[in-house]
Design a protein that fits this description.
The complex is a heterodimer of chains A (about 180) and B (about 110).
Chain A: H1 3-16, H2 20-42, H3 46-59, H4 70-93, H5 117-122, H6 126-137, H7 142-149, H8 153-176
Chain B: H1 3-16, H2 25-70, H3 76-79, H4 87-106
Helix pairs in contact in B: 2-4
Classes of the chains: A mainly alpha (about 180), B mainly alpha (about 110).
Chain lengths: ~180, ~110
Amino acid sequence: MALRDQEDLLLNQRVAGGDRAAFQLLVLRHEGRLRAFLSRVAGSEGDDLAQEAFVRAWQRAGDYRGQGSYAAWLTGIGWRLFLDQRRTARRREALAANEDVPVSTDPRSASDAALDAERLLAALTPQERAALALCFGHGWSHGEAAEIMGVPLGTLKSLVLRGRAKAQKMIGEGGEA
Amino acid sequence: MTQPDDNLDAMLGTLLAPTLRAGDRTFLARVEHRIDAEAALGRAERRFWKSFAFEALAISALLAALWMLSSSDLLAPLAGSTQWGLAPPLLLIVALWFAGTQRHRQT
């Protein structure tokens, strides 16, 4: 276990005992990456989800006992919260079950010279977005990313391949124009 | 992996990497506020159920006592000839008292 992970584990053990100062340290250590990931996946809802994830991490600190890294455990909480929120929103809006691919509302065309992350991610499903963000942006291994997302390794690899292929296509279209 | 593949992976890495910065204390304050709010809500809920259970127990005891009284021979002259005698008006008083306490608790 890396030194940083050991420190996180020790801090979390203090959190499980109700130590607020230890929790503050954990929040300051991990909020940047968690918010970045959830913003990539959920857009403007990312910060709310990150807050909720930290609240759950505080309430369930005893559940983390050093299996994997604290960051992976926390990111997994955030991801599951996103899935729950999405399910609720879908039920509420009575969206069709097969509308998995979000429609990009970005008015800019693909021929714009600069291809930014938002445009690229808008063309992907949330699962593909999460898989790419975890593996390429955050540097998690496929195994760790699969653990965080709660999917089998093969599924994760398929998501990465599909997302990557879509990204390649978009970049190609952007370059040709 | 081929050269274009490596380039794409590097590009995705750059696009999707989180920006490195110091911890955000405003965000921390929001998280702590939320934790405190949830804890306060939890305490209020526990208080409510505890008090509800206590009152339900008290009402059950009262109702049992009223039932015993209404079936007692001592109060038969007051109750008249009907079987339930004093029970309905007394039950109404208990129900009004319970409704009143619930309303008072909500305000």
